[in-house]
């Protein structure tokens, strides 16, 4: 690895990084079939309460603000389900941020299944300018397939009630949709539904998990991507080519009528890499390591998708947050993304756009563990090939300081339907 690159990466990680906070750990009131985080309870044995203590919370907020050389510090609150902590917890969050912010600005985003949001919650979120991410997988017949409660009942009705409350109180919200084996076959139904409920910013996250197998080929639990035992991709994981087709069909509608009106994270990130700008999406960055996760008890792990013993960096009450983020262990975790790209990736014409995707999805069986190809490779290639003419057009418009939305007229003339 180039030493100058390594040093530059270390300097950047030391002054600016992102921490996803899990103040309630893996605790959740739902039991979504595809959730990879529920089983993180196993890391903490007999723990009965996954509630972040006042000591950990204050230490995290203070260190996170003080250690970063940025004008605005962005906090991301996830779970599990963070609303389980109650409003008083997040009122405390706001007070502590005010206490330690100095001259820096503060932003808060809050990812939720939305089932517990009521008017009081929505008033608080609006008054304190929280950006709310709502997890929703499409219309009811798609959403309720996997997003169920502890009794197996669908959660769609509760989510829609919450969205109405968010809109009533003018809370800014976006949507996160998990693309799985089921809803991936209905891209336009999903996209048009999300527009109909008022989502202008959309994330489409592909679910890819693998489960270990017993001697009878029975899945017994999710395993990390470098697992060397017998495993198979779960039945709810999205098919790679189907994921590409899902994105393509949505892109076709977006590029002919919705550019500048609705924003799809992966489309924005693709265009950013197309014009050699930061994509703002870690899966398409050159390296990893600048987005860690803090658990309810102050434990820090390298990434939300790598909460395993081997990716433990330390505890915030024992080791300074900045020290863990610029540690050799975290640095090496980050640069392995590029260092371990298989030869097919290095020769691929979309390498600078894709960057190999998320390392957690390098689970293709038959490859050497340290050089595995991303499971979604075929889908990404299909997507990037499909959008290339329109990305080239938008890149040219940006170069000439014209709005990328001009692509819509071009697409309406050239898109083969």
Please describe what this structure looks like.
The protein has 417 residues and is α/β, with parallel strands linked by helices. It contains 15 helices and 13 strands. The chain has helices at 3-15, 54-66, 87-100, 119-127, 140-143, 156-168, 187-196, 240-257, 265-274, 321-325, 328-339, 343-347, 351-354, 377-399, 407-414; strands spanning 18-21, 72-77, 105-112, 131-135, 173-179, 201-206, 210-213, 219-223, 231-233, 263-264, 291-294, 299-301, 312-315. The strands form 2 sheets. A 10-stranded mixed sheet has the order 10-6-5-4-3-2-1-11-12-13. It has a 3-stranded antiparallel sheet with strand order 8-7-9, with no helix packed on it. Helix 8 runs parallel beside helix 14 and helix 8 packs across helix 15 (407-414). The termini are far apart. 41% of the residues are buried.
